[in-house]
Amino acid sequence: MANRLSQIATRTGDDGTTGLGDGQRVPKTHLRITAMGDVDELNSHLGVLLAEPLPNDVRELVLTIQHELFNLGGELCIPGYSLLKEDALLRLDEALAHYNAQLPRLAEFILPGGSRSAALAHVARAVARRAERAVVELAQSGEAVNAAPRQYLNRLSDLLFVLARVLNRANLDGLGGDDVYWKSERLASQAAE
């Protein structure tokens, strides 16, 4: 990427278009712009998560993920360009295995809640899934998209689910301590009998 931002308010997008990293202008409704926007939103949600009390290892991991998401966005910004490295995927796989090993197996569904940090991780997880769908749709439309962004977002959403469970157990705000289990109407009626 040759150009860095030196001016934010350029007014070049007033006509409903925006520039890609290769200089091409596309409508702001283009699937590539949607995918880039979803990745940016995900990164912003992680920024909010970082404003919460977090275990130091989780904080460092999330900060690394933010940088990798910026690389992912840069890759999406330039059709055919490769910026997200294979070690980024490996890092997610290793983190997923590490944190998942600390957790009890799930026997039922959980709700996105508990501590504030866990709830924020769940919001980021949902946005990661949306970003993944946007990248898949972009690729299915015939646009040049490498496999790494899709794979990264898929693994990241799984990791964020696991981190939400870790953060509930860390209970740094005193509002967590465990997963919030879903109780279906069926389970409630069985308990009442």
Automatic annotation (TrEMBL):
GO biological process: cobalamin biosynthetic process
Annotated EC: 2.5.1.-
Domain annotation Cobalamin adenosyltransferase-like: ranges: 8-166
Keyword presence, Lyase: no
UniProt region (Disordered), positions on chain: 1-26
Biased composition (Polar residues): 1-10
Family annotation (SUPFAM superfamilies): Cobalamin adenosyltransferase-like
Cell division recorded as keyword: no
Catalytic function, reaction form: 2 cob(II)alamin + AH2 + 2 ATP = 2 adenosylcob(III)alamin + 2 triphosphate + A + 2 H(+)
InterPro entries noted in UniProt: CblAdoTrfase-like (IPR016030), CblAdoTrfase-like_sf (IPR036451), PduO-typ (IPR029499)
GO molecular function, one term: corrinoid adenosyltransferase activity
Coiled-coil annotated spans: none
Entry keywords, A to Z: ATP-binding, Cobalamin biosynthesis, Nucleotide-binding, Transferase
SUBUNIT field: Homotrimer.
Family matches, as PANTHER family: CORRINOID ADENOSYLTRANSFERASE, CORRINOID ADENOSYLTRANSFERASE MMAB
Similarity annotation: Belongs to the Cob(I)alamin adenosyltransferase family.
NCBIfam families recorded: PduO_Nterm
Name of the featured protein: Cobalamin adenosyltransferase
